[in-house]
Amino acid sequence: MWQRSYGNRQPTAIGLLMSRQRSLLRPLPVIVLLAALGLLFALGFWQLQRGAQKQALLELVTLRSTQPALQVGRAVLGSGLEYFPAVARGEYETTGQFLLDNKSHAGRPGFYVLTPFRISGSDTRLLVNRGWIPLQGSRSQLPQPQVPAGSRQLAGQLYVPQQAFTLERKPPPPGAALRQNLDLAVLNAQAPHPLQPYVLRLSAKEPGGFVRQWPFPGRQAVNRHRGYALQWFALALVLAGVFLAMVRRDRKSDPEREPPHD
User: Fold this and answer.
1) Closest alpha carbon to 131 in 85, 47, 67, 200
2) Whole-angstrom Cα distance, residue 129 to residue 202?
3) What is the pLDDT, as a whole number, of residue 23?
4) How far is CA 15 from its chain centroid?
5) What DSSP element (H or E) covers 39?
6) Residue 79's Cα: distance from chain center in Å?
7) How far apart are CA 55 and CA 60, in angstroms?
8) pLDDT in tens, 168-202
9) 144 and 26 share a domain?
10) Which residues form the domain of 226?
């Protein structure tokens, strides 16, 4: 009759090896592995989705920026006009200008300068982003950019500002010189006059502005998201490979699988 012989191997060592193998194949480690793989693959697909969104935005901005400029008048503009070029005739208002905080350029902190622009022949206002200025010293002494005087025609691009994270519990009062967020709905509710539901990013060719290197979705951003996705997928494959290699090694070292001896 065949009998297994373990030589000088101690039962305790055999028990440790067998428990090690069983510990990898027990439900809990497998569940943890599957959860980790699911998370890594979810992160990878999320990055692919983000890349697809950036690609769609890039195509939209590229298409709309080549269209004829819209004329902004007294009538409140409808939805779906973001990224279209636009022109407006009127004059800047000397009151109501404010700074939008937490904007950086070339690694320096600063602000965007937002100035109300009154449309000719109406009470309608259009907020104009005249560009970026640096923070000088501390926020206790805010810069006061000069407002250009006189009637003029402006050209730029319409956009809807995105809400940024802020610790503000409530919006600043009307006339505040500094804001953390640019919420057009709040400003419209505070203003005593109609306000267009867009901000005009002043063209770099227009006088009366500051640094105007507007954020623009580029091919590099799309490729970056795709690169992140590949990294998450690669980590998932590495994790699965390491787990399978450990299981295979433990199975080879299992004494129950050694050939029987006489």
Assistant:
1) 200
2) 6
3) 59
4) 53
5) helix 27-64
6) 23
7) 9
8) 677 788 888 999 888 898 888 888 899 999 999 99
9) no
10) 11-58+220-257
